[in-house]
Every structure is written in structure tokens, then in C-alpha cells.
Amino acid sequence: MKIIAGEFRSRVLSTPPGVKTRPTMSQVRARVFNICQESVADCRFLDICAGSGSMGLEAISRGASSATFIEQSRDSAEVIRHNIQLLGVADKSHLLCQEASLALQGLISKNKCFDICYLDPPYGSQVGTILSLLDTSSLLVEGAYFFMERNAKTPLDISSLQHLQLKSSRRVGDTLLYCFRRPFSKQEGHL
Fold first, then answer.
1. Which of the four pLDDT bands, split at 50, 70 and 90, describes residue 188?
2. How far apart are alpha carbons 7 and 65 in whole angstroms?
3. Backbone conformation region of residue 178, classed left if phi is above 0, alpha if psi is from -120 to 50, else beta
4. CA-CA distance, 139 to 135, in Å (whole number)?
5. Which of 19, 45, 66, 71 is the most exposed place for a label (fewest CB within 10 A)?
């Protein structure tokens, strides 16, 4: 797997062995960054169920100020650590090796916030708690992008979302890529 653009373009990343981790396809990564390209520079990027860390590292390559990686698997977390060292971006990276909802609760308690978030959970997993935390907490700032990759055959129930607004969903092979945004408050300049 290669970084597709930016400072580290064409650099090869390691991926976790086996079939449990599903690396994000380059077409999906390209779509995500085409949608939010004007928001990537100096952003704080959150990569949930990070796998190899390719999304967060792609964001850093394109100018993000930092990336926080959440990955429960110790094997995958070691691959992320290796990729961070390979690119020399430890000063811009923070890795949490724990279950996603616990990691998010920890970030909330530390008043952390992010401009772009990417969630790529294992297909078939329940994501209700994660969605609720992202929707109701202050983790995502006003105007933040939230992307989620999901198996196209598994419907996503978003009826309980209060703040995140679905902007689009695009199919790429067997994957459905959802794009949400947290709206700006109705203040001058953000109508």
C-alpha cells in the first residue's frame, strides 16, 4: 500500500498480516481527500479502527498538523508504530491501542477535538456507541468532516443522529463511503 499524494507520495506502508484487517482502497482514500481537500492543511485528523494507519498518514502527508490513531489490535498497532517511524512523523502522531469507544471517551475527557475523522470498522461490527459519541460530544468541531466506510450490503441506521448531517454516500465496489459534517452554528458568516 502506498501514500497517494503529498510529502510522502509513493512511500510504501506496511499492512497487518492476515485477513482480519482490510486496508482502505486507494480509490476510497482518494475520494475522501478529494471531498475534504480544502480542510486538510493544519487539521487534526482522527483515524478510528486505523488498521495500518494509512488514512491518518495520508492526512499528515497532505499537511495535517496531527493524526490520532485508534486501533484495538496489538498486531495492527505495531504496524502503525512501524509506519509512523518509517515516515518520521512521531511528533505529529498519537496512537491509542484500545477499543474505540473507550479511546473516544478518554479523548472526550481530555477535551480533545478534531477537524476530520475517519472510521473503518470491521464489516459487520456494531458502531452505534461510536456514532453516538461522535455525534453528541465535542470531539468533532463545527464544520468537521466525518467519513465512515461500511459494507454496502449492511444498512447504516442514522435516525438517532442529532448533530452529524449526512452529505453523501458513494459506492466503491463492495464498500459504501458515507460523508457526514457537523454543521456550523448559525452565526455571522456561517449561514
1. very low
2. 13
3. beta
4. 8
5. 19
